[in-house]
Design a protein that fits this description.
This protein is mostly helical. 87% of the residues lie in helices and 0% in strands. Helix 4 runs parallel beside helix 8, helix 5 runs antiparallel to helix 8 and helix 5 crosses helix 9. The radius of gyration is 22 Å and the shape is globular.
Length: 269
Amino acid sequence: MSVLQKYLKQSATYKVISHFLVIFADFLETLGKIAQIGFHTLMCILKGEIDCKELVMQCERFGVSSLPITLSIVGMTSIIVASQVANEMVKQGGGNFVGLLMTILIVREVGVIMSGFAIISMIGSSLASEIATMRVTEQVDAIDVLGVDSIRYLFVPRVLSGAIMMPFIVILSSVIGVLLGAVTSDMFAGLSYRAYFDSVWLGLFMKDLGVCLLKAIVFGATIALISCTCGYNASGGAKGVGLATTKAVVWSFIAIVIWDMIFAVLFFF
């Protein structure tokens, strides 16, 4: 029996299943820590325990620093989609609905999802590595020793800045995406700007804009919370910093996709 167990543990199937179970256990542990710290952070915000100076600095970091890459990603995605959709729709006689299709696609999904991916790549990884470095160099322990609530000091301004700045980023990137869609449709399919923008308002309602902004607030807070939590629980020196940053990026990607599915089911089904 022991020989059978030995061969079983050396099999590829056993290794894959074991690795999956380790990842799943790590996910549950991380989820619990995120929920616990998120509740603490929310209580601090509701009590008004906010460092306004630090909040302004984090808002500048979250919004201004990430704007070029966010606009680039959303803009290029809009160009790619419009270049393929507009020409085919014009051929099929649906040119009058290109603007409608592009606007709904960008406002509901592309603008907020691609903005979230850009924020995760640039800001989320930065937050995780910054706090992880503070943890492994015992700076977080020093903050606690001084009698300062490290979660209030580190989490509140970052999570709040994510919730505040993400809607502005999404609005600006969505506008750029719609405009670039119009330019691309004119270049690739010969669709006039008037025909494009006349159809924009046919299917775009306040509900779409409201859901988009609500989704942006949730995405921004979630990215900041997960990134900070992964960094906060880092250990093991430089290797731990790298692992914490990787976990922050991976879990943030998964989280916003799950949130996006929840919003789609709640508001559009």
